[in-house]
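Rotation project, supervised by the postdoc (A.L.). Task for the rotation student: set up a whole-complex structure prediction and record inputs and outputs verbatim in this book. Inputs entered:
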Amino acid sequence: MDVRGHLDLLLLATLQRLGEAHGYALIAELRSSSDGVFDLAEGTVYPALHRLERGGAVTSVTDRTAARPRRIYRLTGAGQTLLADRRTQWQVFAEGMRKIIGTVPARPAGPANPAVTW
Amino acid sequence: MDVRGHLDLLLLATLQRLGEAHGYALIAELRSSSDGVFDLAEGTVYPALHRLERGGAVTSVTDRTAARPRRIYRLTGAGQTLLADRRTQWQVFAEGMRKIIGTVPARPAGPANPAVTW
DNA sequence: GCTCAACACCTAGGAACCCTAGGCATAGGA
DNA sequence: TCCTATGCCTAGGGTTCCTAGGTGTTGAGC
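Outputs recorded:
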């Protein structure tokens, strides 16, 4: 599933819920919490975390006590603010979408429509 | 509002609802129907329509009877299929987002949402 | 002992997409 | 006359994400 434009929100929200996490754990958490909808590639997540850290939304420390060195991320104050902002943006966006396409959010998983690819 | 990744769905859904429309009208309709959330630049919409037409999802005819020549778009059969597919994708996506960030887009009390046919 | 999956991190490069920033032209109201 | 609204268009760039690799360790199963 393409997460274009909403990756930061997903990562920030998950980080907030977990308190702290390393990249690999974030990927696993997003996959399981979304029931497989968000199965993000490492090449998607790691650069995004670096970007967020450059932007000051998260900080990281290296945990060398683990079996393998891990980079543990957590939200900063600015990250909390950014998250709140992104959350609001998402809600406005989703509500706008609802108005245009008039869909009901929840729906039992059914067979996917045949993919149309060009 | 950034529509990254969902522009096609917005355009196709609006075209389906209107039956047919020219680009400028689509922009106006998206702005008003979304209560100002989606205020798209022409430089966003026209190239997207061209892309959709190249892909076979819409066709256009030039209306020369209007005050100014307009390009009238309408959905093709493939466009209907694409729209249904994108709609499903959106619902899966929005439901995934709900699971991660834990919010449901607020819906005003009122008539049930229009039935969505698959 | 060997192999393979899972864990855990990383980057380069490209493709897609959208937005900015213009341009062109006509009609009508201030 | 000037400005706004209508109506179309494209070039170019920036952001973002994904593909496709790479590195190395640990542990389970054969």
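Student's summary: The CA atoms of residues 48 and 72 of chain B lie 14 Å apart.
Supervisor addendum: Chain B touches chain A through 47 residues (CB under 8 Å).
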